[in-house]
Design a protein that fits this description.
single chain, 490 residues, alpha+beta, nine-stranded mixed β-sheet
Length: 490
């Protein structure tokens, strides 16, 4: 019955479309130059008591969200991507032609309005229309409740409806754009240049993850959607580009959850002659700059919690956090193994540092309220990271955690080509062919032999950061078109 009712409503709209055409109007619109953002119009200084005449002249465009009225007067709510505005339609003001058009308007239609700004008798700021311009007919009826879609899956699948019917959703994605713009501004201020590296790669590298595989027909070769831009950005350091960054999509053929989407946005940056301490300072600058761009202070609401981003953020070693939360001596592998097995982790045949890492993930990470920099990781799990000169068991690496989520990962970059090749070979041993880094990137090692400067490198997960800064609990709420299981047609 619902489908039949919808088809009936669409037939009514088609009939109105035909009537608009008989008026000599294009139901699919035209250029509408010079219109102002509704937020700009709402910010105009309009003296109290100004009515339909005497106020500033304006031109706005938007979608009809509400309609009410009777007789020779109608009120519309028009919404664009900056806000909403009430519009007064009077037959005497818009004339016979305009009033005839008004009779064919539906919720969801796009129109342009010329008029003056003033206040109604009830004191609401309103555009009193003098001219209507029809811009686009909406053939599909909108959601039944114009306060917005409430079904989360439908909001993710039909983001176009979510955006125009839920103002908070539009605000979220405009906020996300501000975060990315702030990143670019901070990087430019610090002398970095933005670059682009391949998203299809012959060898998947730069992270431990399962890649997506595609095929190039002309060359008859398999290619991988990148899991990280790291190895190409480091090649640019070898070439003499001393400060580079890239903001782009990466792809990992893994699970979907409130914290994971197989296609996500990452910012990676590399600075010659820096180290992981340099990257901690940069990370604070980037995130604090993003907070400044979206507004508000460092105390950010997130669900039922409040996150305090006031810098500087604490820096704690991996070892001391493991000792604190697991109650063990991280230097005594027998205590590490016993603790890991007590919570159901498999330890047989695994490198001690791998077991330690799995224990850290299970016991420590969820307890890191943050923001907190976890520094100095076990070297065996960091094949691209420089070892500490005084203790080669320790890698100069940090991860930034907030509310148990990893937001950033950074290294003092390994630039010894001999050690890098040796570590690659050790890592590749036993890897499944379909896994990432299951093949040596000989050209990257060759590049290192031409001398890559000592450097710091950083990766930040943009989507997770936006979740936290924009108060969203699921990563799907900050990705415009998250990956969804195909919807059954049954």
């Amino acid at each position: 019955m619902a489908d039949e009712s919808r088809e009936s409503l669409e037939e009514v709209r088609l009939e109105k479309l035909r009537k608009i055409e008989t008026m000599g109007l294009d139901p699919w619109g035209q250029r509408f130059d010079g219109h102002q953002a509704i937020a700009e119009v709402r910010s105009l200084v309009v003296p109290e008591g100004t009515g339909s005449e005497g106020g500033p002249k304006v031109r706005i465009a938007g979608r009809i969200m509400l309609r009410r009225g009777q007789g020779k007067v109608n009120f519309l709510e028009l919404r664009d991507w900056t806000g909403r505005m009430q519009v007064f339609l009077g037959k005497n003001q818009v004339g016979d032609a305009g009033w005839g058009l008004a009779g064919e308007l539906d919720l969801g239609d796009l129109i342009g309005v010329d008029g003056t700004v003033g206040y109604t008798k009830t004191g609401e700021l309103t555009v009193f229309a003098s001219t209507l311009t029809f811009l686009t007919k909406s053939l599909a009826p909108p959601p039944e409740k114009w306060h917005g879609l409430t079904d989360l899956e439908q909001r993710h699948r039909q983001r176009y409806i979510d955006l125009f019917s839920n103002p908070e959703s539009m605000e979220t994605f405009l906020g996300r754009s501000k975060v990315i713009a702030a990143f670019r501004r901070v990087m430019a201020e610090q002398g970095y240049v933005e670059v682009e590296t391949p998203t299809m790669q012959a060898i998947a590298g730069g992270a431990a993850a399962r890649p997506f595989i595609t095929h190039h027909n002309t060359l008859d070769i398999d290619l991988f959607l990148r899991i990280a831009p790291e190895l190409y950005l480091k090649r640019l350091l070898v070439g003499g580009m001393e400060r580079v960054f890239e903001i782009g999509r990466v792809y990992r053929n893994e699970g979907i959850s409130p914290k994971h989407n197989p296609e996500f946005t990452m910012m990676e940056a590399y600075q010659a002659y820096g180290d992981y301490h340099t990257m901690m300072d940069l990370t604070e600058s980037l995130i604090c700059g993003a907070i400044g761009a979206i507004g508000g202070d460092y105390q950010r609401p997130w669900g039922e919690h409040t996150i305090d981003f006031t810098p500087p953020w604490p820096r704690r070693t991996y070892r001391e956090l493991l000792a604190e939360h697991a109650g063990i001596d991280p230097d005594n592998f027998e205590t590490v193994r016993a603790k890991a097995e007590s919570i159901g982790l498999t330890t047989a045949g695994k490198d001690p540092d791998v077991v330690t890492s799995e224990l850290f993930e299970e016991i420590v990470e969820d307890r890191l309220d943050g923001p907190i920099f976890v520094i100095d990781y076990p070297a065996a799990i960091c094949p691209l990271t420089k070892r500490r000169g005084s203790d080669p068991r320790v890698a100069e690496r940090f991860e930034l955690f907030v509310k148990g989520m990893e937001l950033a990962n950074a290294y003092t970059e390994l630039n010894d080509p001999r050690l890098q090749e040796d570590l690659f070979r050790k890592q590749l041993a036993g890897q499944k062919e379909e896994d990432s880094m299951a093949k040596m990137d000989d050209d990257f090692v060759r590049a290192l032999k031409h001398a890559m400067p000592p450097a710091g490198g950083l990766g930040i997960g943009v989507d997770r950061l936006c979740m936290l800064l924009l108060n969203k609990i699921s990563i799907r709420d900050v990705i415009l078109f998250p990956l969804m299981r195909p919807k059954s047609e049954d």
